Amino acid sequence: MRIVLVGPPGAGKGTQAAYLAKNLSIPHISTGDLFRANISQGTDLGKQARAYMDAGRLVPDEVTIAMAKDRMSQPDAVNGFLLDGFPRNVGQAEALDAMLKDEGVKLDAVLDLEVPEDEVVKRIAGRRICRNDSAHVFHVTYNPPKAEGVCDTCGGELYQRDDDSEETVRTRLEVYHTQTEPIIDYYRAQNLVVTISALGKVTEVTERAMEALGSEKA
Known about the structure:
5-stranded parallel sheet, 3-stranded antiparallel sheet
């Protein structure tokens, strides 16, 4: 299957992408991984992206699109893939359509993870990270530490990242509504959108998604 995963920040796209890709035996292709891989490997595209990022500028669509095209042409993606973070806007969606048309294939589904805005804010603004090890992550509501402000694992101080503040989260949501959400209507016009609730346990959301994708495939 060839799937695009969309949803607001805090919807759990990364977590669901990993589970779905494994269940469907297709590679999970995320924009973040594409950038990191190209930059670390020193590819021409990575150097271009790095130059924009170092200057504090957004990486142009054409660079992102070229990275995605290169990744989707690799052997493990021949029979399908799950795209996470790409396309990010209608222009990128149109470019993806053109790429797939050139290959004689098309998308099977666009999975839209739906989460109420207040829940997104609650999920992200409630996160607390250990200063000693950023892999130790807690949540004031869903996974609170035994002692407030103290990491259960190493005793380090827990803090809220600047980009996890409620104000920043709401700004990120506005960017999502303005730039990325329009691709849902774009794909809905192609009858590709499958919307599911991303509320509940991770396994419940995965089961919901697999069932929806199975129905779409059928």
